Amino acid sequence: MKKNFPSPELPFAYRDQPLSGNIINGLGETNKRAATQIFHGSGARELEWSKLELFFGLINPFKVSWLNLVNRWMLRDADGRIAKSKRKITSHADITAEIKDLALSFGAGSVGTSPMIKEALYKGGEINYANAIVILYPMDSDEMQHVTTARAGTETMRAYMEISRTAIELSKKIRAMGWRARAYCEGADLLHIPLAINAGLGQLGKHGSLICREFGSSMRIATILTDLPLDHDKPIDIAVDDLCIGCRRCTIDCPVDAISDEKHMVRGDDKWYVDFDKCVPYFTEAVGCGICIEVCPWSKPDRGFSLSEKLLKKREKNKLKELK
Ligand code: SF4
Ligand code: SF4
What we know:
Helices cover 38% and strands 11% of the residues. It is built from 12 helices and 8 strands. Helix 3 packs parallel to helix 6 (150-176) and helix 4 (92-106) packs antiparallel against helix 6.
């Protein structure tokens, strides 16, 4: 796996040292509170670091920056007109199955549903929909072996564009049924991971990303929020912690030692944590980095289901041993 990346000598410095990303993110805080959004927004509101993010976005390799701009342009169709006549929903189970089939036929690799939850909102965020449809789209594992080069960055942006297209198409279909629906993709004012976990798509890994059985962490996530009445999936246990506790692959391979081997208290939850002050600067310079998600054993193609099954069996076996 290549680890070279262009590291330009940047022509600026901070006048004052900015606040630590870990403080902004609530590391060590025992009370529950919403996350603070400082970048990766939709552009709907001014974020503290959005200009700096734009600067780093523009100095990315040309193709990556161009695809990023095209993706942003596509997202102008994330919301739109709603048909005047509303389709009557007689069975939540039937409409949920229909929506999932549509998502898969439009190109999603996996799909789940969740009620809208407050954990998906940033501080000050106001999103008023009842339900979430969360979709995953895999990245090409051969291309992603080239993290942190422009080749992997291009594949990441291609996956973003594909998942944006799928989410936009699905939201259009729902609006054509007369129900509100909006697609949230890259640069959304919404936290996708809590919704994906609640929609039964996977669990949080030590590297701070979602792990699913279908694609490990080598995928992108998008969400369609809607008022269409839906049945909800339930969170699943695929034994992510069972492996993360003993595995140190991402911890060792992270070039800036940003990944912690212990869980930490973050805004009232004990969870895996990535040091923002170490990860974000490297991530920003290294065309999106992504080393941790690509070295993760779950990301090996066609590995996830058998790995989960093996780990769950081992857990049961250990429990039985303890009882004897
Ligand atoms: S590389 Fe290992 S420790 Fe890191 S997230 Fe994957 S399974 Fe967990
Ligand atoms: S994205 Fe890169 S820098 Fe950030 S935690 Fe993963 S490996 Fe480390």
